[in-house]
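agent> Task received from the user: take the single chain below, predict its 3D structure, and emit structure tokens. No templates, no multimer pairing.
agent> Plan: (1) validate residues, (2) run structure prediction, (3) serialize to tokens, (4) report one or two observations.
agent> Step 1 OK, no nonstandard residues flagged.
tool_call: predict_structure(input=
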Amino acid sequence: MTAGTTGLKAYVRGIGLLGPGLADWTLGAAVLRGERPHTSTPVELPAPAALPSAERRRTGATVRLALAAGLEALHGAGLEGSGLATVFASSGGDGAICDEICSALATPERQISPTRFHNSVHNAASGYWSIALGATAASTALAAYDGSFVAGLLEALSQLASSGRPVLLVAYETDYPEPLRTARPIAAPFATALLLDANPGAHAAAHLQASLTGQPADTLPESSLEALRAGVPAARALPLLERIARCEGGRVVLDYLNDLRLAVNVTPCP
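)
tool_result: status=success, residues=270
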């Protein structure tokens, strides 16, 4: 897809959101509309009730974050998840577990917990999603550093254009402990999910049409939300979410690569 092309299209049938001061999409939409102030309160990660108890105990913060946002979008769309294609996008996976494994490898014993090891892989959230939902459809896990949200959105839109079947995008990040945090600062845990479909269904929030552009990315006027957008790769979605929350049509430009961004034309659904 090149700059200036017609682009890829989708209806947004469900949205999930979880971040500091953004406990879910209902609360987050009110904040993005300016109806409530944004206060950067700590993120409370719900236990993934959809998982069996044994798997639930093994999950870390990243999996809980991703599943919470994904399930909210799924439930908002009123769709069944077992046959739903998914795209999971994260710039680095679970930072806390990476830190634990690095710390263990620095000891004389070098003993790594098997549970920690299997939670460290980049597609861990995708694997737990398949267990929770009995999902058997194709799932993609990808990373593109600070451009991971848009990379995931492009992948989901491309799959939708190819198959015509709904695709769930889940973009998520957790922060790193020190000393990794100094090398890779992530401002806060954050996740968002978009249930994309070729058809609007009963309650679609907006229609999206995307194309690549060289124009600068949009920022947010509210300082704490802008700090979140700039400080978390998954939160690069916030200008798009703000437009959808406000039911405003128009064009929003999202951060992607150093010399390339994604322009999204948003049309609110009635």
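agent> Step 4: summary for the user.
The domain at 13-205+223-246 is CATH 3.40.47.10 (Peroxisomal Thiolase; Chain A, domain 1).
agent> Done.
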